Hints:
The protein is 17% helix and 39% strand. By secondary structure, it is an alpha+beta fold. The chain starts with a helix and ends with a strand.
Amino acid sequence: MLKRYQSLLLLLLLTIITSGITLFSSALSADETCVYHPEAYQGVNLSNLGNELEKTGLLGEIHGTVPEENIFVLSVRDPDNFFKSQQFSVIPGNKKTRNILRNTDRHDQVCVRGKLVKNPSPQPHIVVKSAVITESWDGLQGYDNYQYQGNIPVDLKYKNHAIFKVHAIDNDGKILVVEYKDKVLPIFVENPELTKDLYRGDLIDLSYKIQPWPKQPTHLNLNLKAENPLTVVDQLVAKHQTEATLTGKLVKFPQSPQIAFDVYAIEVITQGLSRYYTLVNFEDAETFKTIREKLETIWNNHLETVEAGRNFLINPHVMIQAQGQLNIISPQQANPQILLDNANQIQVIN
C-alpha cells in the first residue's frame, strides 16, 4: 500500500515545470560566475555542491526565510529526482549579501557563492559572500506581508518545556527543525534515538535549553537530564489510512516552480498549532481536476477576505469541511493529505 501511494504522488507532479536546468540557464547565461552544471547536482553530493558553491555558484531555491532573525534556508535538488534534495542553512557573509537575502521569498531561485563551514550539526551550513536572485516567485504578490505571531526567543525564555510541531526531520533523526507558534527553530540533537521515528507534522513536548550561541537564529538543545526530554503528543502517521471528517479555514498554496497548479488545503488547529491538510485525489486526474475547480470557485467567491499566510494564502472567513482518508506516507511529507473520492466530500460551513 505504501508503494502504491508513493507512485500515486507522481500524478501530482506530472505538470511540474520541466526542470530547473532550463530555468537557471536562461537566467544565468550572461553571468560567468553562475553556471549550471547538472552533473554536479546529481545525487546532491555535498562535496560536489561545495565545489560549485566556491567556484561557479550554487543554484537553488529559497525554502524559507525569517529575515529579522537572519534565518535563510536554501534547497538544492537533484535534476534527475525531484524528491531528492539538500537543504542548506545560509549565513550571510557580509551586509550586502544579507540585504539581498532579506529581500527573497520562498520559491525564489537564487545563485550563491561562498563556502561550506564546519559545525557540530549534521545540517550543512554555508557562508555566502554573494547572492543573485535569478527568478522571483510572485505567488503572494498583492497581499500585505505576513505578520508573525511568535516572538522568539522571548516566548521560550522563561520556560523549560513546550509543545512544538515538527517542521523537518532528516538523517535518521539527527536533523530536527520545529515550529513554535509560527516560528521555526533548529534543535541540536545529541541523541537521535529520541527523534528518529518522528514525522513532519508530529506534535511533540520538548524539554529544552536555549543555546547561548548563535544568538540568531535561536537554537534549542534537548535537555537530556529531564525525565522525559521528548514526548510525542500527537503522532500524525498514526492517522494514516483512517477515515476522517475535518473542518478548517480554506487555504491555497499558489502555483510554484514545482507544481503547475494551485493546491488547496484546510487549516486544522491541534494543541494551538496549525496543520494544513491538502485536498487531493490521486486515483483519477479528472476527478482531481473537478475537486480543484470546486475549491477554486469557492475561493474566487470570497476574494475580498483573503490574507497572506507564511508561505500560502488563507481565507479566515471561509470554513470548509472535508471527508476522506488521511494519507501520511513519508517522514518528510510537507503536509498531511485528505484523499477525496469526489468533490461532494467538500462542503462550505456557514
